[in-house]
Design brief:
This protein has 306 residues and is of the alpha/beta class. It folds into 2 domains: 2-183, Formyl transferase, N-terminal domain (Rossmann fold, 3-Layer(aba) Sandwich), CATH 3.40.50; 204-296, Roll (Methionyl-tRNA Fmet Formyltransferase, Chain A, domain 2), CATH 3.10.25.10. It is built from 8 helices and 15 strands. It has helices at 13-21, 48-55, 70-76, 92-95, 118-124, 160-183, 215-224, 289-296, and strands at residues 2-7, 26-31, 36-38, 43-45, 60-61, 80-84, 102-106, 129-136, 146-153, 231-235, 238-248, 257-260, 265-268, 273-281, 287-288. The strands form 3 sheets. The chain has a 7-stranded mixed β-sheet. Strands 10, 11, 12, 13, 14 and 15 form a 6-stranded antiparallel β-sheet that branches. A two-stranded antiparallel sheet has the order 3-4. 43% of the residues are buried.
Length: 306
Amino acid sequence: MRVAFFGTPDVAVPALRALLEADDVTVAAVVTNPDRPKGRSRRPVAPPVKEVALQADVPVWQPDRVRAIGDDLRGLAVDCCAVVAYGALLPADVLAVGGAGFVNLHFSLLPRWRGAAPVQHALRAGDQVTGVTTFVIDEGMDTGPILRQVEVTVDPDEDAGALLDRLAVLGSPVLRDSLRDLVAGVEPNPQRESGVTMAPKIHPDDLVIDWSQAGSAVVDLIRSASPHPGAFTTDGGQRLKVYAASATDRDGDPGRVVDVTKQGPVVACGHGAVLLTSLQPSGKGRMDGAAFVNGYRPAVGHRLGT
């Protein structure tokens, strides 16, 4: 198969490697986002997918607008295209020149969690089961017909970063085999109309810890935002990010510290409490709960948030 690969971040790298290593696949081109300024120096940094492609001597295209590559993609005469976290919607005129079609690797069990942040929303909702889906892209938002799905159980201690990494590895051979299916003429199945949920991009307001919620819900929010961008509360008017926590059965005024342990402070919620085990005070680096307790000495009765 001649394949064009569309992807940008680290999570797309395992799928690209799986295609590069397949004996029956030729990756004719990799399409990725332009280099972006990063860090204090603001120097442009190449997307992870670009670095892997260049190491494999695969041509890399980085259009500012994906519509601009339509003629070039037609000239490649690919059999199909693969998409993993490319970062932009593909217009109809590009979809029309991708051979048998564009197969997207999506990190949920569609039609649950259509959109940009399926893993984050699944964890925030407390889902105990998730998985990967490959589908043929149409003009809707993750609405295309399904080729394959693989289901997995979510680890109770798994955060968004760990789960996304696991799904990226799990999904790589699924995507490769789905491309083979499509080119071989396997007919994908329409998505069911029931059970549709949306997973829009996460905004800063979505990351504020609401201590009036149950402790389990607070833990799920923290997991869903870790390691990036991080859920947060305030401490003395300054932002305090929380990256890991566990629920306990303590009671108290929501947002108040009800205990200080060697592992970190315990903060009361609307029902139960949470032990904060990984935090980042404003202007400081990330630290474990013990270091926070030793450095900031939170007292029982101290209030977080508003």
